[in-house]
């Protein structure tokens, strides 16, 4: 196969911190090539250089054998390279067609008038070529995440792209949607398009890719042929150490004391009659398919969303929570699945993020902020949680996903919360960082913290939970102990309500 991309000797540093050093990568036509590594390994930086987001400090880039200089995303698109980021770059109030051709819309004879008919026609041709049954006039905001991702791919192909970079493309997709995405990837492969696939999901990588390039600590490590290697080999190269993925021992059996009790939680058709208990020192897993209502339960508990009814008891006492600040006052912390949007201020430094939820603790007698105390507290948590950062004055946006997650945890530990709700705690985090997060959750449970862990990854729920609550279509459909839980039993309960509704309708 012809080489589409060759990157040789690529260097890149940010404020003296080396992100890539003497890196190399190549992509062939019609190939799906995985790029893997722990968060902070340099893979996203390397791909952003190829996509024109960053400029390389040194090295050479060849596209179809010709050396090129890529100074901007526009340069990359003109050269046939497009990157589809994990956070999709679409405008929800515009139609599919308008999103595909934004900034390049065909015009009428009068320059300031758009030719909507031609926009829709050209968009329909692209959608048809991808076998997508979508109406180009439909607004993007009404599409599922999976369909929005398909629109991103269509948009990329509208530039006649020969190279697609996909960053964590399945992070928010269901199994059925992942299968649909893989069908599309295989169609693109047959058209000679090269796909660079960045993901932490090893099983997916084995299923869809031809080759795997491993990076570690900003360096190229090795390129492997997917069918000839094993997941264990890839993980070993990624982390430079052995990671045991088998289920570890859970913390000792939790106390019989009830830390949190939720009764009669209702919110329209989204949540119906949700009731459960969380024990002190327990990790309570929440499982279910997308749309089951797990995140909605968490947000209702902490007062982020209104609900029709809810009874809350914390340590046996009835409490009222109407706002997240009420939740903090009662010792409840919520770590959102979207940590960058709801858990962190990425433009601020580590120290201020760690202390933002408990700022009154750091005020002096005259209401003056004690910066020295903030720095000391942040440094203690950075050390305890093994946060990899040059200093507590480093901006959070410059940390890897796993280290950002640790900063969020440090924030709630500083606020002295005893009940922690983790929503997708390892989403977008590499294998090595996952292992560290798991150890941290277990240690928090041993210390008597009570944890609700919401996860879409069944192996993670099975690995970490004392008990597992399963939801479907806004209801709790079952509860399983650690001893009796299996993936099959969880999936039966996760689809139970759908089957009941289907039966009722027939």
Topology:
Blueprint: E1 3-14, E2 17-28, E3 32-36, H1 43-50, E4 58-63, E5 66-68, H2 73-78, E6 81-84, H3 96-100, H4 116-129, H5 145-157, E7 163-167, H6 175-190, E8 194-198, H7 202-208, E9 211-216, E10 219-225, H8 231-239, E11 258-267, E12 271-279, E13 283-287, H9 294-301, E14 309-314, E15 317-319, H10 324-329, E16 332-335, H11 339-343, H12 350-355, H13 371-384, H14 401-414, E17 419-423, H15 431-446, E18 450-454, H16 458-464, E19 467-472, E20 475-481, H17 487-494, H18 496-505
Parallel strand pairs: 3-8, 3-9, 6-7, 7-8, 13-18, 13-19, 16-17, 17-18
Antiparallel strand pairs: 1-2, 1-4, 4-5, 9-10, 11-12, 11-14, 14-15, 19-20
Helix pairs in contact: 13-14
Q: What does this molecule look like?
A:
The chain is built from 18 helices and 20 strands. Helix 13 packs across helix 14 (401-414). It has helices at residues 43-50, 73-78, 96-100, 116-129, 145-157, 175-190, 202-208, 231-239, 294-301, 324-329, 339-343, 350-355, 371-384, 401-414, 431-446, 458-464, 487-494, 496-505; strands at 3-14, 17-28, 32-36, 58-63, 66-68, 81-84, 163-167, 194-198, 211-216, 219-225, 258-267, 271-279, 283-287, 309-314, 317-319, 332-335, 419-423, 450-454, 467-472, 475-481. It has three domains: 3-239, Rossmann fold; 247-331 and 417-506, Rossmann fold, CATH 3.40.50; 345-416, no CATH class. With 506 residues, it is of the alpha/beta class.
């Amino acid at each position: 196969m012809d080489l589409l991309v060759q990157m040789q000797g690529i260097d890149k540093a940010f404020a003296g911190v080396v992100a890539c050093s003497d890196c190399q990568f190549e992509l062939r036509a019609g190939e799906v090539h995985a790029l893997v590594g722990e968060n902070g390994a340099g893979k996203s930086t390397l791909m952003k250089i190829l996509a024109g987001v960053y400029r390389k400090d040194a090295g050479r880039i060849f596209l179809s054998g010709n050396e090129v200089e890529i100074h901007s995303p526009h340069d990359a698109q003109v050269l046939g390279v497009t990157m589809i980021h994990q956070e999709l770059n679409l405008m929800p109030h515009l139609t599919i067609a308008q999103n595909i051709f934004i900034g390049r819309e065909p015009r009428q004879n009068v320059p300031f008038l758009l030719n909507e008919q031609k926009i829709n026609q050209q968009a329909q041709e692209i959608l048809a070529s991808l076998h997508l049954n979508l109406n180009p006039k439909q607004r993007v905001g009404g599409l599922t995440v999976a369909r929005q991702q398909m629109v991103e791919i269509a948009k990329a192909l509208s530039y006649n792209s020969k190279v697609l970079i996909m960053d964590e493309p399945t992070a928010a997709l269901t199994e059925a949607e992942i299968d649909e995405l893989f069908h599309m990837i295989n169609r693109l492969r047959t058209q000679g398009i090269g796909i660079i696939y960045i993901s932490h999901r090893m099983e997916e990588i084995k299923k869809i890719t031809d080759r795997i390039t491993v990076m570690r600590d900003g360096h190229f490590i090795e390129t492997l042929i997917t069918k000839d290697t094993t997941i264990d080999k890839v993980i070993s190269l990624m982390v430079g150490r052995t990671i045991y993925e088998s289920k570890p021992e859970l913390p000792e059996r939790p106390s019989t004391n009830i830390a949190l009790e939720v009764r009669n939680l209702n919110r329209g058709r989204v949540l119906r009659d949700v009731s459960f208990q969380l024990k002190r020192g327990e990790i309570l897993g929440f499982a279910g398919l997308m749309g089951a209502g797990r995140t909605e339960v968490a947000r209702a508990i902490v007062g982020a969303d209104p609900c029709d009814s809810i009874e809350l008891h914390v340590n046996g006492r009835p409490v009222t929570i109407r706002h997240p600040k009420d939740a903090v006052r009662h010792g409840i912390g919520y770590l959102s699945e979207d940590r960058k949007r709801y858990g962190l201020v990425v433009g601020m430094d580590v120290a201020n993020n760690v202390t933002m939820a408990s700022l009154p603790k750091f005020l002096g007698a005259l209401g003056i902020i004690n910066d020295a105390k903030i720095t000391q507290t942040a440094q203690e948590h950075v050390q305890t949680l093994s946060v990899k950062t040059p200093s507590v004055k480093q901006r959070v946006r410059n940390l890897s996903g796993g280290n950002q997650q640790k900063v969020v945890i440090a924030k709630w530990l500083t606020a002295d919360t005893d009940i922690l709700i983790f929503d997708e705690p390892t989403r977008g985090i590499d294998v090595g960082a996952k292992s560290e997060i798991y150890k941290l959750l277990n240690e928090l449970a041993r210390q008597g913290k009570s944890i609700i862990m919401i996860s879409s990854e069944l192996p993670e729920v099975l690995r970490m939970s004392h008990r597992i609550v399963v939801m479907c279509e806004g209801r709790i459909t079952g509860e399983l102990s650690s001893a009796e839980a299996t993936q099959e039993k969880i999936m039966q309960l996760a689809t139970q309500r759908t089957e009941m509704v289907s039966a009722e309708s027939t």
